[in-house]
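=== RUN LOG ===
request id: a7f3
mode: sequence -> structure
chains: 1
length: 353
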Amino acid sequence: MKKTIILKIDSENPEPEKIGLAAGVIRQGGLVAFPTETVYGLGADALNSKAVRKIYAAKKRPLDNPIIVHVAKKEDVYRLAEDVPKFAENLMNHFWPGPLTLVLKASSIVPRVTTGGLDTIAIRMPSHKVALALIREARTPVAAPSANLAGRPSPTIAEHVIQDLYGRIDVILDAGPTNIGVESTVLDITRDPPQILRPGGTTYEELKEVLGKVSIHPAALAKSEIHVKYARSPGMKHKHYAPKAKVILVEGEFNAVINKVRELAEQHAKAGEKVGILATDESSSRYNVGIVKSLGSRRNLASAAKNLFKLFREFDEDKVDIIIAEGIPQEGLGLAVMNRLRRAAGYNIVKAD
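=== RESULT ===
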C-alpha cells in the first residue's frame, strides 16, 4: 500500500506550497484528490493516458465510463474539443466557473481512455478556489471523476475520500465540506436541442432560461433500468451512488409516502433488520422505528443535495441493513437528488397510493 499524503488546505486562500506539491504530482503522472464545489474529484493529467488509467484502477471504475476533464481557462476548450458551437461560449460565460459540464466532439490530442472510448469529451470549469489553483499550477487539463470507489456514494468531505482511497492515491487536499453535494450537470451540446445526460448542480430550469429548449435523456429520468449501450456521461450506465445497505425509494403524494415508509419500516424491523429512514424536516418526527435522518427541508432542495451522500455514508457507519428513503419534488436540485436516489436504490421504487 502506498502512503497517501493528506494536506489540510485553506478553501478560500489555498497555500501556494501545498498547491505546488499537488500540481507536481499531477505533472508527474500521479493522482490527487481535491475539492470542487460539487464533490471531491480524483485528478490526473487528462492528456497522459497512463495517468488516467491509474484513476480507473484506483477507483475500480469500468473503462467504458467517461471521465470529466476540468479546465481553468475557456481557451482550453478549443484545444480539447472540435466544432465548438457559438452558443457554447454563451453557456460558458453564463455558467462557468460552476457545476455545468459540456459534452463536445473530442480533438485528436485527447486520449480515448479519458473519454471512455468515445469520440466526445466532457469538459467543465469548477468554481472551487482550490480546484482552480490546482489546475492552473498543473498547467494541464485535469481528468477527475468523483474521488470514491466506483459505485459508492460520492465524497463530500475528505474523510469520505480517505475511507475509499487511502493507500490507492498519492495526495488528498482537504479543504472541508463541498458546497453543492451532488455532481455537475452534464449537457450534451452535440445534440439539437442540447440534452441533459445527468442532472446535477446546474438545474434544468436555469439551462432552459438561457437556451430556450433543452431535452433530458430518458436515463436521467428513469424509474426503471434503461439499457444504455454507450455511456455518453458518467452516471448513465453503471450502478452509482449506492451505500452498502439496500435502498428502497418511496415516491408519491407526501402523506401517502410517509404512511408507506412507516409500513415498510415496521415490516423490515419485525423481520429483524436494522432500518434507516431517509426523511425530510417536515416528516422526520412522524417516524418511531429505525434510525431517522433528515435531508433537510422540502422547501430548500439545495439542503437535500448537500446532505444526500453524507447521510448515505452515515447509514453505512450505523450498519443499517436497509434504508427506506422518501422521494422529494423533482424541481430545481430535486431532479438531481431523485436521479441519485433512484440509481442508489437500483430502481427499487415503491409507489405510495
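=== NOTES ===
The two ends are 51 Å apart (CA to CA).
The chain has a mean pLDDT of 95.
=== END ===
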